Amino acid sequence: MTHKAGFVNIVGNPNVGKSTLMNQLVGERISIATFKAQTTRHRIMGIVNTDDTQIVFSDTPGVLKPNYKLQESMLAFSESALQDADVLLYVTDVVENPEKNMDFLEKVQKMTIPVILLINKIDELQSSQNTRSSQSIQKTLDDIVEKWHSLLPNAEILPISAKNKFGTDMLLKRIKELLPESPAYFDKDQLTDKPARFFVSEIIREKILLYYDKEIPYAVEVRVERFKETEKNIHINAVIYVERDSQKGIIIGHQGVALKKVSTEARKALEKFFDKPIYLETFVKVDKDWRSSQRELDSFGYNPE
Questions:
Q1: Which of 11, 64, 59 is nearest to 194 (CA)?
Q2: pLDDT tens digit string along 275-295?
Q3: Half-sphere exposure of 2 (CA within 13 A, CB side)
Q4: What distance in Å separates the CA atoms of residue 226 and residue 68, rounded to the nearest whole number?
Q5: 185-239, pLDDT tens digit by residue?
Q6: From CA 125, how far away is CA 212, in angstroms rounded?
Q7: What is the pLDDT at residue 205?
Q8: Which residues of the chain are under the pLDDT cut of 70?
């Protein structure tokens, strides 16, 4: 029996549904997914194994023009995904301007590996045009497909709804057809390349993204300082870093109510993720301008090398 294996990297602009797609394809919640842009900061692998196939998916940060060092690292993660893919999934949606971030798109145009362009969120196209006929909706979709075909003429184009799992089975089948023959790159029981501590920090950060507004979630990083697992439970100490004292006050909230809410929600999500009781302690510290310090970014794991 021949065995296929390869790297399938997911790229695209912010907020088009890359992380939701990754989680659907892998069948596990590997990447945090919120309604806010720039949720994903790292390149995260999720591995799908069958007897004769291993697909190594990579979720990447949304492509953007960087304004500070953290965003430079995020862009480097996205660009590195163009270098080592066997199949590239370029994700867009039904409202995005196809010519957004043309610099990155031009790099995709030059690729010689199979590229599948995914037009995500087609459910939104239907709901936003519910007073119009199905022919009208199809015409809108055809126009979007045609525009993208002119930009990426060698790409296969597939309309999907990652949230509703529409088209994802067909996508998975096509990916398996395109993979090269190869032995597995990772153990067959491995789900990701990231350690447990990484998912702890990501889940806490996800709750901060959901419960705080404006700049606060983007000024936050999380470091797990203690992760002690026994047969019965896991004890975790985590530090939430912000850039200013005022942000620390907002994270903690009046009489600690805001921090307690985030910690409680994170603990519930962690217990579901690890399938064990979790004892979580969270602390808040100020690390001035950590997003612009290469030394600090390296310590938080923002190094695409």
A1: 59
A2: 999 999 999 999 998 989 888
A3: 8
A4: 29
A5: 999 999 998 899 999 999 999 999 999 987 888 899 999 999 999 999 999 999 9
A6: 29
A7: 93
A8: 35, 127-133, 304-305
Within 8 A by CB and 6+ apart from 127, the residues are none
Residue 176 has a CB neighbour count (10 Å cut-off) of: 17
Spatial distance between the Cα atoms of 90 and 85, rounded to a whole number of angstroms? 12
Q: Which amino acid is at 295?
A: R
- The interaxial angle of helices 168-178 and 18-26, nearest 10 deg, is 70
Residue type, 125: L
- Other Cβ atoms less than 10 A from the Cβ of 144: the count is 21
Q: Retrieve residue 169's tokens.
A: 């089975």
Q: Could you write out the DSSP letters of every residue in the chain?
A: ---EEEEEEEEESTTSSHHHHHHHHHTS--S---SSTT---S-EEEEEE-SSEEEEEEE-PPP---SSHHHHHHHHHHHHTTTS-SEEEEEEESSS-TTTTHHHHHHHHT--S-EEEEEE-HHHHHHHTTTS-HHHHHHHHHHHHHHHHHH-TTSEEEE-BTTTTBSHHHHHHHHHHHSPB---SS-TT---SS-HHHHHHHHHHHHHHHH--TTGGGG-EEEEEEEEE-SS-EEEEEEEEESSHHHHHHHH-GGGHHHHHHHHHHHHHHHHHHTS-EEEEEEEEE-TTGGG-HHHHHHTT----
**Which of 220, 232, 203, 211 lies closest to 286 in space, CA to CA?**
220
Q: How far apart are CA 161 and CA 168, in angstroms?
A: 8
Query: Which tokens sit at 226?
Result: 């203690």
